[in-house]
Amino acid sequence: MKAIHTLLLILLILLIPTPGWPATTEDWVLIANPKAGIGRLTQDEVTNIFLGRYRRLASGVTAEPLDQPADSALRARFYRQLVDKSLAEINAYWARLVFSGKTRPPGVASSSEDAMQRVSLHPETLAYIEKSRVDARVVVVFEIVE
Amino acid sequence: MNTIQPRLIKTAQKTRKSLLLLGVAAALVQITPALADGSVESTPIPTPTPTESSVSLRGFGTLGIARSSSDQAEFVRDLSQPQGISNRWSGRIDSMLGVQANWQATPTLELVGQAVSRYHYDRSRDPELMWAFAKWEPDARLSLRAGRIGADFMMLADSRLVNYSFLTVRPSADFFGPLFFSHFDGADASLTLPLGNGLVRGKLFAGITHEKSSGIAGVWDTSGSALNGLVLDYQTGPWQLRASAASIRFSSDIDLAPLPDLLRSAGTSLGIPSAIAAADTLIVKNTTTRFYSIGAVYDDGPLQIQGMLNSIHHQTGVFHNSRAGYLLAGYRMGTVTPFIGVSWWKTHAKSSSTGLPDIAPFDAINQSFDSSMAVSVADQKTYTLGARWNVRQDMAIKLQWDAIRGTAASRFPFANIKPGWNGHTNVLSLSLDFVF
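YS: structure for the whole thing
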C-alpha cells in the first residue's frame, strides 16, 4: 500500500500542464568547420551521426555531433524535422543506448555561440544553429528545405 | 511427498528494499564527486575538445505497481524473480534503480560501470554490478569491449531493465521471460559498415556468466557457464532487421536431489534402463542451450511497430524447448503514445517417462519426476493494451493491461502456483519511469 501512496503523490505533483512542442519558427542549419572539407551531407548521414549509428565521415574522421541545450526550442525543432521525434522519444532512444553501454550521445553546447566556437576550433565537430547566425567561421553542410 | 519445492522462502523484506534503493543511490553519488571534476555536459567554458577526458553520472529507475486477477499463480517479470505479484497491488516486479558512471579516458577509450538494485533471485534488492567494462573504439566502425558486459541475446535484451527506453511497462514476459542472464564477464567486438542505403552491423561476444537465478528448485548458481554468440543487424530508413544466435554451456546442475539418485538406484536394482535414462535427462551440467532470434522494427515518426521471434533449444531434459514471439505497435499522439500488442510462448514437451512401475514405492519417484518435468511447461498468449505518457523529457507514466490466456499446464512463466490454476490471469500495471 505504501508504494501506491508514494506513486499517487508523485502522479499528483506531475499533473501540472506540460507543453507539447516548444514553439520556434527559427530555421536551423547544420554547420561544420570550413577546413574539414565535409561537403554536403544527406539527411540519412546526419541522422546516423546524431543518433550515433555511424559517425565516420568520408574523410575517415569520426564526427562529433553537438546538441543545443536540453530545454532549447531549436533542439526540439531539429529532431522534429530530422526524424519526426519528440525530445522525450529521443531521450528514450538514448537511454537504451547509453544504459546498455553502447554509443555516446552528442555533446551539448551551452548556446549557439558556443556551438559556433567549438565548430570553428574542431574540424570533427558538427552542430545545428539558427540559420540567421551563420558567419564566415563555419560552413553549412546540411539544411532541411520545407 | 513431492521432493521438488519450487521457490521456497517467504520473507518479503519491504522496508529493507526501499532503504537499499536509497542507499545505492547515496553511495554512488558519494563516490563520484571525486571523479567528476567539473567536466560534465553542463559546464559551458572553456570550450573543451569534444572527446576530452570527461566523467558523467547518469541513472534510470522505475516506481511501478501491478496486480493480477488471479491468486492461483504469481506473475513475474522474468524467471530470475522468485516471487511475483498476484491479486493485490505490489511494487515488487517492476520497481528498480540503476546508476551508471561513464569515464571517457581518451578519445577512443571509455570506462563504464553500472549498478542496479532490483528484485532478484534471493528475494532482496541488493545492488548488483551489471556492467564494468572498458570500451575501445579505434575508429567509428569498430567497437571492442572487455569486462562485465550485457548479454545481447536478443534485440533489446541488454536494455530490458531501462523501462524508460521502451513503450511498454516491461518487455514482453513471454519473449524475454526465459532470459535470466543479464551480463557476463568477457568481451565483444562489433563492426558497422555502410551497405546499400543502410548500415550493417555484426557483433561477436564470448565470456563466462556468474549469475544466480531463482531456478526450479531454489537458487540456481550458474556461475562459470561459458557463453558465446553473434548478432547481425541491418538498418535502412525506418527499418531495422536483426538476427542473433547464442549458446550457453551450463557449469552446474539444478539441485533436484534426491530424485536422480533414486532413479538410478531403482533403475539399476530393477534392471530398467529407462529409469537411468530419465535420471540422465535431469542433468544440466555440461549441457548446451541455444537461443535463436529474428526481429524487425519499423520506426517512422509517430509510428513504431516491432515484431520478434525466438526459439530456445535445450540439450537437458529439465527445460523444454520453446518458441515465442511478439508483435507490438504504438502511435504517438502529442505526448501520449497508445500501444497494442500480442505475444506468445509455447514449449514443446520432451516425452520421457521413468519406465518404473506405478506402484509403491516407485509411484512417488514417478510423481516427483513428472512434476519436475511439468515445471518448465509454457503454453500461453498475452494480449496487451496500454499507453505511455511522456510527462517530461526525462519522465514517463505508463498504464498497461495484459490479458494472459494459457492452458492450465502453463506453469513456467509463473511463481508459486496453487492447485486450481487455469492459466488465465489479467495484469494491470502502472509505472513511473525516469532517467537522470
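YS: worth flagging: Residues 14-435 of chain B form a domain with the Porin fold (CATH 2.40.160.10).
IM: good catch. Also Confidence is low (pLDDT under 50) at residues 1-51 of chain B.
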